[in-house]
Amino acid sequence: MDIVNQTGNLGAGPSQNWGSLVNNANSGSQTMAGQNQQYNQNMQQEQFKYQKARDTISDKQWQQKFDEDVRQYGLNYGLQQLQLNNDEAYRKAQLALSQDDNDRQWASLDAQLSGTADQAKAVSGDVAGNILAQSLQKVVGTDPVSGKPVYGTISDPTAREKAFIDAWNTSGVAPGADTVTMLSKAGYTAQEIANLKSKYPVAFNSGGPSGGNGSPANVSVPLRYQEMLSASNSKYGLPDGLLAAVANKESSFNPSAKNSKSGAAGMFQFMPATAKGYGIDPMDPRQSADAAGKMLSGLAAKYDGDYSKALAAYNWGGGNVDKAIKVYGANWLSHAPAETQKYVSEILG
């Protein structure tokens, strides 16, 4: 199936909702709640597209006419009228929609699949390959007759690597043969596949994803963060995969996570005062990972390499751990809060 041709009717390039594409490919059926959620998502996307197109229209008169056309007859009609009356503004609107669409669709699919692990690992290599091929399309010009955008395939190596990372993290394709199928289907060369396999072996490990470098908790690490976490791990001499396990436990690798009650923020859930003490922006994953590595290394040194105590101190506070050790000795952990006991157990496995 030619996914690029199975798009919406905006003429704005690949604009099909990729979450729906995956659901359709897997022959899933939606409940009423699911249908309502899909409807709301479609409405949000329509509003987003309208605003994106409107922002490209600099002339106030044409902007007002576009608003009125969309209000009365919908976005498609508004774009059609814009094409008839102001071709330059129409082309700018189409280009803006096309350039932004791929990132938005991956983010939408990522949100839909979050928390649904069974769905996240149910996409075939063929389907994922079609989605990846679609994400590599970009506007390279305009057809002189129809005025519609002409698409070509992205060739920049960095952009293609990023597209692969986004696809593997989001589409849910299984590691191993399905990943190779996905890349081949999307038009990656044998050399490109070999380079990616060397750099991201976890995606090609048919034994399944692991925490990367023997993570204590054997967690699945998003490719985009593997190199960063591994570097911080090595920099501070921590056990392989420890930071990955902590990041997974703290925020499920979400750099934008925030606890509205405690104020903890970022991938490693730093409290405001702690983040200030380390001089970092807790929402920056690299700064946060470096600070977490430094903190855990310091705690491990304090407790003579005992990572149970170091992790408990990270979660519960060093002062509380010190008091528990002083009062209960070797049985200190059994007197820690249940949350801390679970925290240590799940990270160390």
Automatic annotation (TrEMBL):
Residues 231-328 form the Transglycosylase SLT domain. Keywords: Coiled coil. Residues 1-33 are annotated as: Disordered. Residues 36-99 form a coiled coil. It comes from the Bacteria. PANTHER family: MEMBRANE-BOUND LYTIC MUREIN TRANSGLYCOSYLASE C, SOLUBLE LYTIC MUREIN TRANSGLYCOSYLASE-RELATED. This is Lytic transglycosylase domain-containing protein. It comes from Paenibacillus lycopersici. The lineage of its organism: Bacteria, Bacillati, Bacillota, Bacilli, Bacillales.
